[in-house]
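PROTEIN DESIGN WORKSHEET
SECTION A - STRUCTURE
LENGTH: 479
C-ALPHA COORDINATES:
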Protein backbone atom coordinates (compact mmCIF):
# COMPACT_ATOMS: atom_id res chain seq x y z
CA UNK A 1 0.00 0.00 0.00
CA UNK A 2 1.60 3.26 -1.15
CA UNK A 3 1.69 6.19 1.29
CA UNK A 4 2.66 9.80 1.04
CA UNK A 5 5.90 11.01 2.55
CA UNK A 6 4.73 14.00 4.53
CA UNK A 7 8.25 14.91 5.63
CA UNK A 8 9.54 15.18 2.08
CA UNK A 9 10.29 18.57 0.52
CA UNK A 10 8.42 17.42 -2.55
CA UNK A 11 4.84 18.80 -2.46
CA UNK A 12 2.09 16.21 -1.86
CA UNK A 13 0.44 16.81 -5.23
CA UNK A 14 3.74 16.02 -7.00
CA UNK A 15 4.12 12.80 -5.03
CA UNK A 16 0.56 11.79 -6.04
CA UNK A 17 1.14 12.72 -9.70
CA UNK A 18 4.39 10.71 -9.77
CA UNK A 19 2.70 7.71 -8.16
CA UNK A 20 -0.22 7.68 -10.65
CA UNK A 21 2.17 8.18 -13.56
CA UNK A 22 4.12 5.13 -12.40
CA UNK A 23 0.97 3.00 -12.15
CA UNK A 24 -0.01 4.07 -15.67
CA UNK A 25 3.46 3.28 -16.98
CA UNK A 26 3.36 -0.24 -15.55
CA UNK A 27 0.02 -0.86 -17.30
CA UNK A 28 -2.11 -0.96 -14.17
CA UNK A 29 -4.23 1.80 -15.70
CA UNK A 30 -4.22 1.19 -19.48
CA UNK A 31 -4.88 3.95 -22.03
CA UNK A 32 -8.52 5.05 -22.01
CA UNK A 33 -9.19 3.60 -18.55
CA UNK A 34 -10.93 5.60 -15.88
CA UNK A 35 -8.85 6.71 -12.89
CA UNK A 36 -10.34 6.70 -9.37
CA UNK A 37 -12.37 9.86 -8.72
CA UNK A 38 -10.74 12.86 -7.07
CA UNK A 39 -12.91 12.39 -3.98
CA UNK A 40 -12.05 8.68 -3.66
CA UNK A 41 -8.33 9.24 -4.05
CA UNK A 42 -8.41 12.10 -1.57
CA UNK A 43 -10.14 9.85 0.98
CA UNK A 44 -7.75 6.95 0.35
CA UNK A 45 -4.66 9.13 0.75
CA UNK A 46 -5.98 11.33 3.53
CA UNK A 47 -5.45 14.60 1.65
CA UNK A 48 -7.62 17.48 0.59
CA UNK A 49 -9.50 17.07 -2.68
CA UNK A 50 -7.72 20.18 -3.97
CA UNK A 51 -4.38 18.33 -3.67
CA UNK A 52 -5.65 15.54 -5.95
CA UNK A 53 -7.06 18.16 -8.36
CA UNK A 54 -3.56 19.68 -8.55
CA UNK A 55 -2.01 16.24 -9.17
CA UNK A 56 -4.46 15.54 -12.03
CA UNK A 57 -3.77 19.00 -13.48
CA UNK A 58 -0.04 18.17 -13.48
CA UNK A 59 -0.69 14.86 -15.31
CA UNK A 60 -2.98 16.64 -17.78
CA UNK A 61 -0.28 19.24 -18.51
CA UNK A 62 2.03 16.37 -19.49
CA UNK A 63 -0.63 14.81 -21.76
CA UNK A 64 -0.80 11.66 -19.59
CA UNK A 65 -4.49 11.99 -18.63
CA UNK A 66 -7.56 13.73 -20.02
CA UNK A 67 -10.55 15.01 -18.07
CA UNK A 68 -14.03 15.67 -19.38
CA UNK A 69 -16.63 17.39 -17.23
CA UNK A 70 -19.00 14.83 -15.82
CA UNK A 71 -17.10 11.78 -17.01
CA UNK A 72 -14.04 11.81 -14.74
CA UNK A 73 -10.33 11.53 -15.55
CA UNK A 74 -9.02 8.90 -17.98
CA UNK A 75 -5.59 7.81 -19.13
CA UNK A 76 -5.03 9.60 -22.47
CA UNK A 77 -5.72 7.53 -25.58
CA UNK A 78 -2.50 8.77 -27.07
CA UNK A 79 -0.81 6.48 -24.57
CA UNK A 80 -2.13 3.35 -26.33
CA UNK A 81 0.86 1.25 -27.28
CA UNK A 82 3.11 4.10 -26.41
CA UNK A 83 3.39 3.73 -22.70
CA UNK A 84 7.14 3.97 -22.36
CA UNK A 85 7.50 7.26 -24.25
CA UNK A 86 7.30 10.03 -21.74
CA UNK A 87 7.91 13.71 -22.27
CA UNK A 88 10.31 14.73 -19.51
CA UNK A 89 8.63 16.91 -16.93
CA UNK A 90 10.75 19.98 -17.66
CA UNK A 91 8.87 22.18 -15.23
CA UNK A 92 9.88 19.95 -12.37
CA UNK A 93 13.48 19.71 -13.56
CA UNK A 94 13.57 23.50 -13.77
CA UNK A 95 12.31 23.82 -10.21
CA UNK A 96 14.84 21.35 -8.87
CA UNK A 97 18.30 22.82 -9.61
CA UNK A 98 20.44 23.93 -6.68
CA UNK A 99 20.86 27.47 -8.04
CA UNK A 100 17.98 29.56 -6.74
CA UNK A 101 15.71 31.61 -9.02
CA UNK A 102 15.79 35.40 -8.93
CA UNK A 103 13.65 37.32 -6.43
CA UNK A 104 9.95 37.66 -7.41
CA UNK A 105 10.01 41.50 -7.49
CA UNK A 106 13.05 41.43 -9.79
CA UNK A 107 11.39 38.92 -12.10
CA UNK A 108 8.27 41.10 -12.19
CA UNK A 109 10.33 44.18 -13.11
CA UNK A 110 12.20 42.30 -15.85
CA UNK A 111 8.88 41.03 -17.25
CA UNK A 112 7.36 44.54 -17.21
CA UNK A 113 10.39 45.95 -19.07
CA UNK A 114 10.29 43.16 -21.66
CA UNK A 115 6.58 43.57 -22.27
CA UNK A 116 6.61 47.34 -22.59
CA UNK A 117 9.78 48.88 -24.00
CA UNK A 118 8.38 52.38 -23.35
CA UNK A 119 8.30 51.70 -19.57
CA UNK A 120 10.27 54.41 -17.72
CA UNK A 121 13.10 52.53 -16.07
CA UNK A 122 14.33 53.65 -12.64
CA UNK A 123 15.12 50.00 -11.84
CA UNK A 124 18.06 48.97 -14.05
CA UNK A 125 21.36 49.86 -12.40
CA UNK A 126 23.21 50.96 -15.51
CA UNK A 127 24.04 53.93 -17.72
CA UNK A 128 21.81 55.11 -20.59
CA UNK A 129 23.27 55.29 -24.10
CA UNK A 130 23.69 59.08 -23.55
CA UNK A 131 25.96 58.56 -20.55
CA UNK A 132 27.97 55.63 -21.88
CA UNK A 133 31.08 56.24 -24.04
CA UNK A 134 29.44 54.70 -27.11
CA UNK A 135 31.33 56.77 -29.71
CA UNK A 136 34.68 56.12 -28.04
CA UNK A 137 34.06 52.37 -27.84
CA UNK A 138 32.80 52.23 -31.44
CA UNK A 139 35.91 54.12 -32.57
CA UNK A 140 38.11 51.50 -30.89
CA UNK A 141 36.07 48.67 -32.42
CA UNK A 142 36.28 50.24 -35.89
CA UNK A 143 40.05 50.69 -35.81
CA UNK A 144 42.18 47.98 -37.35
CA UNK A 145 42.37 45.40 -34.63
CA UNK A 146 45.75 44.00 -33.63
CA UNK A 147 44.81 40.71 -32.01
CA UNK A 148 47.46 38.15 -32.88
CA UNK A 149 45.49 35.01 -32.15
CA UNK A 150 42.02 33.86 -31.09
CA UNK A 151 42.73 30.69 -29.15
CA UNK A 152 41.72 29.90 -25.59
CA UNK A 153 43.33 32.64 -23.55
CA UNK A 154 44.54 32.68 -19.96
CA UNK A 155 41.43 32.13 -17.77
CA UNK A 156 42.85 34.80 -15.45
CA UNK A 157 42.25 37.34 -18.22
CA UNK A 158 43.87 38.97 -21.26
CA UNK A 159 47.35 40.19 -20.30
CA UNK A 160 47.15 43.67 -21.95
CA UNK A 161 44.00 44.39 -19.93
CA UNK A 162 45.57 43.22 -16.68
CA UNK A 163 48.58 45.44 -17.46
CA UNK A 164 46.32 48.42 -18.15
CA UNK A 165 44.51 47.73 -14.86
CA UNK A 166 47.76 47.78 -12.87
CA UNK A 167 48.12 51.44 -13.96
CA UNK A 168 44.43 52.23 -13.54
CA UNK A 169 44.20 50.77 -10.03
CA UNK A 170 47.20 52.75 -8.87
CA UNK A 171 46.18 56.01 -10.51
CA UNK A 172 42.53 56.02 -9.48
CA UNK A 173 42.30 53.83 -6.36
CA UNK A 174 45.82 53.99 -4.90
CA UNK A 175 46.19 50.21 -5.18
CA UNK A 176 49.67 48.86 -5.87
CA UNK A 177 49.40 45.50 -7.54
CA UNK A 178 50.75 43.40 -10.42
CA UNK A 179 49.22 41.53 -13.39
CA UNK A 180 49.55 38.25 -11.53
CA UNK A 181 47.31 39.46 -8.69
CA UNK A 182 44.49 40.51 -11.03
CA UNK A 183 41.75 38.32 -12.43
CA UNK A 184 39.34 39.56 -15.12
CA UNK A 185 35.71 38.55 -14.65
CA UNK A 186 32.42 39.08 -16.47
CA UNK A 187 31.56 41.93 -14.11
CA UNK A 188 31.50 42.21 -10.32
CA UNK A 189 28.57 39.86 -10.26
CA UNK A 190 30.81 37.04 -11.41
CA UNK A 191 33.51 38.05 -8.94
CA UNK A 192 30.96 37.68 -6.13
CA UNK A 193 29.84 34.35 -7.56
CA UNK A 194 33.39 33.00 -7.82
CA UNK A 195 34.29 34.20 -4.33
CA UNK A 196 31.26 32.54 -2.74
CA UNK A 197 31.70 29.32 -4.71
CA UNK A 198 35.46 28.98 -4.29
CA UNK A 199 36.20 30.47 -0.87
CA UNK A 200 33.20 29.54 1.27
CA UNK A 201 31.36 26.32 2.07
CA UNK A 202 27.66 25.66 2.68
CA UNK A 203 26.76 26.58 6.25
CA UNK A 204 29.40 29.34 6.52
CA UNK A 205 28.28 32.69 7.90
CA UNK A 206 29.01 35.98 6.11
CA UNK A 207 28.17 39.59 6.98
CA UNK A 208 26.73 42.14 4.56
CA UNK A 209 25.51 45.71 4.89
CA UNK A 210 21.83 46.19 5.63
CA UNK A 211 20.36 47.26 3.27
CA UNK A 212 22.62 45.96 0.53
CA UNK A 213 22.80 45.05 -3.14
CA UNK A 214 24.23 41.71 -2.01
CA UNK A 215 20.93 40.93 -0.37
CA UNK A 216 19.24 41.06 -3.79
CA UNK A 217 21.46 38.22 -4.99
CA UNK A 218 20.16 34.71 -4.30
CA UNK A 219 23.70 33.55 -5.16
CA UNK A 220 24.63 33.78 -1.47
CA UNK A 221 21.72 31.53 -0.50
CA UNK A 222 22.47 29.25 -3.47
CA UNK A 223 25.95 28.76 -2.00
CA UNK A 224 24.28 27.75 1.30
CA UNK A 225 25.63 30.76 3.20
CA UNK A 226 24.04 32.18 6.32
CA UNK A 227 23.78 35.95 5.97
CA UNK A 228 24.11 38.35 8.91
CA UNK A 229 23.23 42.02 8.45
CA UNK A 230 25.44 44.95 9.48
CA UNK A 231 23.09 47.90 10.10
CA UNK A 232 24.03 51.16 8.38
CA UNK A 233 23.59 54.81 9.26
CA UNK A 234 24.51 57.79 7.09
CA UNK A 235 28.23 57.04 7.62
CA UNK A 236 28.00 53.36 6.66
CA UNK A 237 28.35 50.33 8.93
CA UNK A 238 29.65 50.48 12.53
CA UNK A 239 32.91 48.49 12.70
CA UNK A 240 32.24 47.45 16.33
CA UNK A 241 29.26 45.40 15.14
CA UNK A 242 31.73 43.09 13.41
CA UNK A 243 33.34 42.06 16.64
CA UNK A 244 30.04 40.91 18.15
CA UNK A 245 28.93 39.16 14.93
CA UNK A 246 32.24 37.34 14.84
CA UNK A 247 31.92 36.25 18.46
CA UNK A 248 28.31 35.11 18.20
CA UNK A 249 28.13 33.66 14.71
CA UNK A 250 31.71 32.98 13.62
CA UNK A 251 31.30 35.01 10.45
CA UNK A 252 33.87 34.02 7.86
CA UNK A 253 33.85 36.96 5.47
CA UNK A 254 32.49 40.50 5.15
CA UNK A 255 31.06 41.93 1.91
CA UNK A 256 31.07 45.73 1.72
CA UNK A 257 30.30 48.36 -0.91
CA UNK A 258 31.94 51.35 0.81
CA UNK A 259 31.57 54.02 -1.87
CA UNK A 260 28.15 55.38 -2.95
CA UNK A 261 26.64 52.17 -1.77
CA UNK A 262 23.94 50.39 -3.72
CA UNK A 263 21.13 51.08 -2.76
CA UNK A 264 21.64 53.90 -0.21
CA UNK A 265 24.39 56.00 -1.87
CA UNK A 266 26.23 56.08 1.48
CA UNK A 267 30.01 56.50 1.79
CA UNK A 268 31.74 54.65 4.62
CA UNK A 269 33.36 57.39 6.75
CA UNK A 270 37.16 57.62 6.77
CA UNK A 271 37.55 57.02 10.55
CA UNK A 272 35.33 53.96 10.27
CA UNK A 273 37.48 52.61 7.43
CA UNK A 274 40.55 52.70 9.65
CA UNK A 275 38.72 51.09 12.56
CA UNK A 276 37.21 48.46 10.29
CA UNK A 277 40.64 47.46 8.98
CA UNK A 278 42.02 47.27 12.53
CA UNK A 279 39.19 45.03 13.72
CA UNK A 280 39.23 42.81 10.62
CA UNK A 281 42.98 42.27 10.84
CA UNK A 282 42.77 41.59 14.58
CA UNK A 283 40.18 38.87 13.88
CA UNK A 284 41.87 37.63 10.68
CA UNK A 285 38.62 38.26 8.88
CA UNK A 286 38.71 38.90 5.11
CA UNK A 287 36.76 41.77 3.55
CA UNK A 288 35.45 41.77 0.00
CA UNK A 289 35.50 45.42 -1.11
CA UNK A 290 32.96 45.79 -3.92
CA UNK A 291 33.82 49.15 -5.49
CA UNK A 292 32.02 49.79 -8.79
CA UNK A 293 30.96 53.40 -8.09
CA UNK A 294 33.97 55.28 -6.65
CA UNK A 295 35.00 56.93 -9.93
CA UNK A 296 31.59 58.55 -10.23
CA UNK A 297 32.30 60.79 -7.15
CA UNK A 298 30.77 64.09 -8.30
CA UNK A 299 33.64 66.12 -6.87
CA UNK A 300 36.15 63.76 -8.51
CA UNK A 301 37.65 62.91 -5.10
CA UNK A 302 36.55 59.49 -3.85
CA UNK A 303 37.87 58.35 -0.46
CA UNK A 304 40.86 55.98 -0.67
CA UNK A 305 39.94 52.35 -1.23
CA UNK A 306 40.14 49.96 1.73
CA UNK A 307 42.57 47.93 -0.34
CA UNK A 308 44.98 50.88 -0.59
CA UNK A 309 44.89 51.29 3.22
CA UNK A 310 45.35 47.58 3.95
CA UNK A 311 48.79 46.59 5.17
CA UNK A 312 47.69 43.11 6.16
CA UNK A 313 46.60 41.48 2.88
CA UNK A 314 43.04 40.98 4.14
CA UNK A 315 41.10 42.64 1.33
CA UNK A 316 39.79 41.18 -1.90
CA UNK A 317 39.07 44.17 -4.13
CA UNK A 318 36.50 43.90 -6.90
CA UNK A 319 35.88 46.52 -9.57
CA UNK A 320 33.82 46.84 -12.72
CA UNK A 321 33.49 48.71 -15.97
CA UNK A 322 29.67 48.55 -15.77
CA UNK A 323 28.86 51.71 -13.81
CA UNK A 324 31.56 53.94 -15.26
CA UNK A 325 31.29 52.96 -18.92
CA UNK A 326 29.25 50.07 -20.30
CA UNK A 327 27.61 47.15 -18.50
CA UNK A 328 27.11 45.22 -21.76
CA UNK A 329 30.85 44.69 -22.30
CA UNK A 330 30.70 42.55 -19.13
CA UNK A 331 34.13 43.39 -17.78
CA UNK A 332 35.06 43.41 -14.11
CA UNK A 333 38.20 42.60 -12.12
CA UNK A 334 39.33 41.14 -8.86
CA UNK A 335 42.56 41.91 -6.99
CA UNK A 336 43.51 39.26 -4.45
CA UNK A 337 46.41 37.21 -3.06
CA UNK A 338 47.93 34.70 -5.51
CA UNK A 339 46.42 31.66 -3.83
CA UNK A 340 42.93 33.14 -4.29
CA UNK A 341 43.54 34.24 -7.88
CA UNK A 342 44.80 30.78 -8.80
CA UNK A 343 41.76 29.15 -7.21
CA UNK A 344 39.19 31.38 -8.95
CA UNK A 345 41.04 31.22 -12.30
CA UNK A 346 40.96 27.44 -12.10
CA UNK A 347 37.20 27.59 -11.43
CA UNK A 348 36.75 30.00 -14.33
CA UNK A 349 38.62 27.58 -16.60
CA UNK A 350 36.23 24.83 -15.60
CA UNK A 351 33.19 27.08 -16.12
CA UNK A 352 33.88 28.54 -19.57
CA UNK A 353 37.67 28.72 -20.22
CA UNK A 354 37.69 32.44 -19.33
CA UNK A 355 36.37 35.69 -20.76
CA UNK A 356 36.30 36.61 -24.45
CA UNK A 357 39.43 38.51 -25.49
CA UNK A 358 37.55 41.02 -27.69
CA UNK A 359 35.80 43.13 -25.01
CA UNK A 360 38.93 42.81 -22.86
CA UNK A 361 41.01 44.27 -25.68
CA UNK A 362 38.53 47.12 -26.16
CA UNK A 363 38.52 48.00 -22.45
CA UNK A 364 42.34 47.86 -22.28
CA UNK A 365 42.59 50.39 -25.11
CA UNK A 366 39.87 52.62 -23.72
CA UNK A 367 41.46 52.76 -20.26
CA UNK A 368 44.76 53.86 -21.79
CA UNK A 369 43.24 56.51 -24.05
CA UNK A 370 42.82 60.23 -23.28
CA UNK A 371 39.14 59.88 -24.03
CA UNK A 372 38.68 57.82 -20.85
CA UNK A 373 39.52 60.77 -18.61
CA UNK A 374 37.31 63.10 -20.66
CA UNK A 375 34.48 60.58 -20.51
CA UNK A 376 34.70 60.29 -16.71
CA UNK A 377 34.52 64.06 -16.32
CA UNK A 378 31.45 64.26 -18.52
CA UNK A 379 29.83 61.31 -16.78
CA UNK A 380 30.14 62.86 -13.33
CA UNK A 381 28.57 66.12 -14.46
CA UNK A 382 25.70 64.33 -16.17
CA UNK A 383 25.02 62.01 -13.24
CA UNK A 384 24.91 64.93 -10.83
CA UNK A 385 22.55 66.72 -13.20
CA UNK A 386 20.23 63.68 -13.33
CA UNK A 387 20.34 63.34 -9.53
CA UNK A 388 19.23 66.98 -9.19
CA UNK A 389 16.45 66.49 -11.73
CA UNK A 390 15.16 63.47 -9.85
CA UNK A 391 15.22 65.29 -6.51
CA UNK A 392 13.48 68.31 -8.03
CA UNK A 393 10.77 66.08 -9.52
CA UNK A 394 10.25 64.38 -6.13
CA UNK A 395 9.99 67.75 -4.41
CA UNK A 396 7.42 68.90 -6.93
CA UNK A 397 5.35 65.74 -6.96
CA UNK A 398 5.69 64.22 -3.50
CA UNK A 399 6.70 67.04 -1.21
CA UNK A 400 6.45 65.97 2.45
CA UNK A 401 5.74 62.35 1.49
CA UNK A 402 9.31 61.17 0.81
CA UNK A 403 12.67 61.52 2.58
CA UNK A 404 16.18 60.87 1.21
CA UNK A 405 19.84 61.83 1.49
CA UNK A 406 21.24 63.28 -1.73
CA UNK A 407 24.14 61.00 -2.77
CA UNK A 408 27.47 62.62 -3.70
CA UNK A 409 28.26 59.99 -6.32
CA UNK A 410 26.88 56.81 -7.86
CA UNK A 411 23.60 56.34 -9.65
CA UNK A 412 20.99 55.47 -7.00
CA UNK A 413 18.64 57.48 -4.79
CA UNK A 414 17.25 55.64 -1.76
CA UNK A 415 13.84 56.97 -0.90
CA UNK A 416 11.82 56.53 2.26
CA UNK A 417 8.09 56.76 1.72
CA UNK A 418 6.60 58.50 4.72
CA UNK A 419 2.97 57.29 4.44
CA UNK A 420 2.39 53.54 4.61
CA UNK A 421 1.81 52.08 1.16
CA UNK A 422 1.73 48.33 0.45
CA UNK A 423 5.00 47.52 -1.33
CA UNK A 424 3.71 44.97 -3.86
CA UNK A 425 0.57 46.95 -4.70
CA UNK A 426 2.63 50.09 -5.22
CA UNK A 427 4.93 48.40 -7.72
CA UNK A 428 1.90 46.97 -9.59
CA UNK A 429 0.26 50.38 -9.71
CA UNK A 430 3.49 52.05 -10.86
CA UNK A 431 3.82 49.49 -13.66
CA UNK A 432 0.26 50.36 -14.73
CA UNK A 433 1.42 53.98 -14.80
CA UNK A 434 4.40 53.05 -16.99
CA UNK A 435 7.17 53.24 -14.33
CA UNK A 436 9.47 50.68 -12.68
CA UNK A 437 11.79 51.11 -9.68
CA UNK A 438 13.04 48.58 -7.12
CA UNK A 439 11.08 48.05 -3.87
CA UNK A 440 13.33 48.38 -0.81
CA UNK A 441 12.71 44.91 0.61
CA UNK A 442 14.73 43.50 -2.31
CA UNK A 443 17.77 44.95 -0.54
CA UNK A 444 16.79 43.52 2.83
CA UNK A 445 15.31 46.69 4.28
CA UNK A 446 11.93 47.00 5.95
CA UNK A 447 9.17 47.95 3.55
CA UNK A 448 8.62 51.66 3.03
CA UNK A 449 11.78 52.22 0.98
CA UNK A 450 12.47 52.23 -2.75
CA UNK A 451 15.55 52.55 -4.95
CA UNK A 452 15.43 54.92 -7.90
CA UNK A 453 18.33 54.76 -10.35
CA UNK A 454 18.79 58.02 -12.24
CA UNK A 455 21.43 56.95 -14.79
CA UNK A 456 19.02 55.21 -17.12
CA UNK A 457 16.03 57.52 -17.90
CA UNK A 458 16.53 60.77 -19.84
CA UNK A 459 15.58 64.18 -18.39
CA UNK A 460 12.06 64.18 -19.81
CA UNK A 461 11.43 60.63 -18.57
CA UNK A 462 12.66 61.50 -15.07
CA UNK A 463 9.89 64.13 -14.79
CA UNK A 464 7.18 61.97 -16.41
CA UNK A 465 8.22 58.86 -14.46
CA UNK A 466 8.11 60.61 -11.07
CA UNK A 467 4.70 62.07 -11.94
CA UNK A 468 3.49 58.49 -12.66
CA UNK A 469 5.04 57.19 -9.44
CA UNK A 470 3.43 60.03 -7.45
CA UNK A 471 0.00 59.20 -8.92
CA UNK A 472 0.51 55.58 -7.82
CA UNK A 473 1.51 56.60 -4.27
CA UNK A 474 -1.44 58.96 -3.86
CA UNK A 475 -3.89 56.37 -5.12
CA UNK A 476 -2.73 53.77 -2.59
CA UNK A 477 -2.08 56.01 0.42
CA UNK A 478 -4.19 55.01 3.42
CA UNK A 479 -6.91 57.67 3.87
C1 LIG B 1 27.49 47.01 -5.54
C2 LIG B 1 27.39 46.24 -6.81
N1 LIG B 1 28.16 45.15 -6.99
C3 LIG B 1 28.12 44.44 -8.11
C4 LIG B 1 27.25 44.76 -9.14
C5 LIG B 1 27.27 43.92 -10.39
O1 LIG B 1 27.68 44.68 -11.49
P1 LIG B 1 28.48 44.10 -12.74
O2 LIG B 1 28.41 42.61 -12.69
O3 LIG B 1 27.75 44.63 -13.95
O4 LIG B 1 29.87 44.60 -12.63
C6 LIG B 1 26.40 45.85 -8.98
C7 LIG B 1 25.41 46.17 -10.01
O5 LIG B 1 24.42 46.83 -9.81
C8 LIG B 1 26.49 46.62 -7.80
O6 LIG B 1 25.72 47.70 -7.60
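SECTION B - SEQUENCE
RESIDUE ASSIGNMENT:
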Amino acid sequence: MWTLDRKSKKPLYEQIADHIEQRIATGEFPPGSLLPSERKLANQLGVNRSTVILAFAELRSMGIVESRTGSGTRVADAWRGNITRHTPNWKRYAENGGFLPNLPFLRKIREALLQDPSMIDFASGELSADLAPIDEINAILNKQSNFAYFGYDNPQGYLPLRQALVEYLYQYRGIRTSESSIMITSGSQQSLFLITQCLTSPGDAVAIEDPSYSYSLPLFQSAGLRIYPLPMDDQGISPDDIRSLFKENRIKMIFLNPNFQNPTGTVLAQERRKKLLDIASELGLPIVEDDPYSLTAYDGLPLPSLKSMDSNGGIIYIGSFSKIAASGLRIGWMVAPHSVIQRVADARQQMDFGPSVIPQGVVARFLQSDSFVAHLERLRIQLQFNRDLLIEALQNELSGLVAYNAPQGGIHLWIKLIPYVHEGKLLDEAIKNGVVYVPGSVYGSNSGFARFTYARPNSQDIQTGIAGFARSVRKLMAP
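SECTION C - NOTES
The first strand starts at residue 65 and ends at 67.
Residues 12-96 form a domain with the Arc Repressor Mutant, subunit A fold (CATH 1.10.10.10).
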